[in-house]
């Protein structure tokens, strides 16, 4: 469970498919002279049952991509699907329900409720939704994350790594179709960070979950099955079975990134960029 993805057998999980998909996904912030193009006609397929990392320089559009895939942000152009559901065009109420029922989120700052126990934090989103957790699934998640002895503890009684494990369990509790993790190890020391990555890896390998993780850390990306490299709002490359060294090397030659004005640079696509997982 704790082995980097490079040591896992390559190939898709049985019954794979696409958990999320975007075509021509474009996001501009602002308008006129101050407008910036955060995403520029991105095509992406997120393979079901796999662990995908998103890397790129600061300002390259990683968080925007994540937010658009989750329906947390509106798109300027293009289409986004979660499974078979097109989310572009859904009303806010439908989006709220879709996020609650079908997507799990893990953030850099664990976002736990301090007055609740670990167990209560884990089931909170389902409690709010009036949904009953599947007890067997929840047991599996709690055991995979090694949280059984900590369930009665409040966040302040847990280490940072344990708190992030609780946040991971909360994201997995409803057995979502997609788990989105934005810099999940950003606030952790390297040892506890590796622990959390091993658990995310376990969520994919042992529980069949689909995880997309934004990270700046090549070592974290090495736990994934596939790294997508963003630069200037475009997917410029991808790397299956990444190693930390290969990711670091690839990052060195990425453009410095940052937003730019719409239309200021002609759309030019590297060979293979935006290729779908199906086509590999
Ligand atoms: N709410 C916003 N309003 C205006 N511009 C925004 C907004 N959100 C993002 N941007 C712009 O879009 C660009 C892409 O932002 P995004 O946060 O997706 O980049 P990132 O790759 O996640 O960066 P970082 O690694 O620093 O978190 C940013 O550089 C920023 O200028």
Tell me what the structure shows.
- The chain is α/β, with parallel strands linked by helices.
- The chain has a domain at 19-109 and 179-279: Rossmann fold (3-Layer(aba) Sandwich).
- It contains eight helices and ten strands.
- The chain has helices at 62-69, 92-102, 118-129, 135-144, 160-172, 190-205, 218-221, 244-252; strands spanning 18-29, 36-47, 51-55, 77-82, 85-86, 103-106, 178-182, 211-214, 226-231, 234-240.
- The strands form two sheets. A six-stranded mixed beta sheet has the order 6-7-8-3-9-10, sandwiched between helices. The chain has a four-stranded antiparallel beta sheet with strand order 2-1-4-5, with helices on one face.
- A hairpin with a 6-residue loop joins strand 1 and strand 2.
- Helix 3 runs parallel beside helix 5 (160-172) and helix 5 packs parallel to helix 6 (190-205).
- The protein is globular, with a radius of gyration of 18 Å.
- Residues 1-15 and 263-280 have low confidence and may be disordered.
- The site of adenosine-5'-triphosphate (ATP) has 14 residues, from strand 2 and helix 1.
Hey, roughly how much beta strand do the residues contain?
15-25%
Q: Largest sheet at a glance?
A: 6 strands, mixed
Might you state the CATH topology name of the domain at 19-109 and 179-279?
Rossmann fold
Q: Which blocks of ≥5 consecutive residues have pLDDT under 50?
A: 1-15, 263-280
Number of helices: 8
> What structural class do the secondary elements suggest?
alpha/beta
What strand order characterises the main sheet?
6-7-8-3-9-10
Average pLDDT score? 85
Oligomeric form = single chain
- Tell me the span between the first and last alpha carbons: 25 Å
Number of strands: 10
The percentage helix is: 25-40%
CATH architecture of the domain at 19-109 and 179-279: 3-Layer(aba) Sandwich
**The top level CATH class name of the domain at 19-109 and 179-279:** Alpha Beta
The string of secondary-structure elements, in order, is EEEHEEHEHHHEHEHEEH
CATH-level-4 superfamily name of the domain at 19-109 and 179-279:
P-loop containing nucleotide triphosphate hydrolases
Region (Disordered): 1-21, 255-280
InterPro entries: AAA+_ATPase (IPR003593), ABC_transporter-like_ATP-bd (IPR003439), ABC_transpr_LolD-like (IPR015854), MacB-like_ATP-bd (IPR017911), P-loop_NTPase (IPR027417)
Keywords: ATP-binding, Nucleotide-binding, Transport
Pfam family, one: ABC_tran
């Amino acid at each position: 469970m704790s082995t980097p993805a490079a040591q896992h057998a390559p190939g898709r999980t049985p019954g794979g498919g696409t958990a999320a998909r975007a075509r021509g996904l474009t996001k501009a912030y602002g308008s006129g002279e101050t407008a910036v193009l955060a995403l520029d006609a991105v095509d992406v397929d997120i393979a079901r049952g796999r662990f995908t990392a998103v890397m790129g320089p600061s300002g390259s559009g990683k968080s925007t991509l994540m937010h658009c895939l989750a329906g947390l942000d509106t798109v300027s152009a293009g289409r986004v699907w979660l499974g078979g559901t097109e989310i572009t065009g859904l009303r806010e109420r439908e989006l709220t329900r879709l996020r609650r029922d079908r997507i799990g989120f893990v953030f850099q700052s664990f976002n736990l409720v301090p007055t609740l126990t670990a167990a209560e934090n884990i089931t909170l989103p389902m409690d709010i939704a009036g949904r009953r957790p599947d007890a067997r699934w929840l047991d599996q998640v709690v055991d995979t994350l090694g949280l059984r002895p900590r369930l009665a503890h409040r966040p302040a009684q847990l280490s940072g790594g344990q708190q992030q494990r609780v946040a991971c369990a909360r994201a997995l509790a409803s057995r979502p179709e997609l788990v989105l993790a934005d810099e999940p190890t950003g606030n952790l020391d390297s040892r506890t960070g590796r622990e959390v990555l091993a658990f995310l890896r376990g969520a994919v390998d042992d529980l069949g979950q689909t995880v997309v993780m934004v990270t700046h850390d090549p070592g974290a990306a090495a736990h994934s099955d596939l790294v997508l490299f963003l630069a200037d709002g475009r997917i410029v490359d991808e790397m299956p079975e990444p190693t930390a060294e290969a990711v670091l090397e690839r990052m060195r030659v990425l453009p410095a990134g940052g937003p730019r004005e719409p239309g200021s640079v002609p759309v030019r696509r590297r060979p293979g960029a935006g290729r779908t997982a199906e086509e590999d």
